[in-house]
Amino acid sequence: MRKSRWATVVAALCTTATLGLVVPHPAVAAPDPCSYVSPTHRPLLTYGDNGAAVQQAQCLSNVWGGEPPKLAVDGDFDSATLEKIQWIQICHGLPPNGVIEGRTWQVLEHPALDCYHPYPP
């Protein structure tokens, strides 16, 4: 009888520890890696533009993993930035015009998990 109680207590402790019910850990918010401009400042950007909003778009585009190259976050909307923005637009079913506007900002901030459109060589 004594062994049975001991086994029950050990099993209960193991279950509690496995479920994480012992001591909850406080949630820690991850810092925003792209904070060049306010989250509400999302202007229309086109090839040739420069500044902090372009840096924000470049940084957000670098969240994409896998095949696409990382952009230099230099604030210059150059041909490399244009090509990557067009690719991201294609991946989300947007017109690949290279213009960063409302819908493109939205997909930069909430990218799809995967894209099956090959990145240009």
From TrEMBL:
Key words, A-Z: Signal
SUPFAM superfamilies, per database record: PGBD-like
Residues of the Peptidoglycan binding-like domain: 53-108
Record keyword Zinc present: no
Signal peptide range in chain numbering: 1-29
Protein name: Peptidoglycan-binding protein
Native species: Streptomyces viridiviolaceus
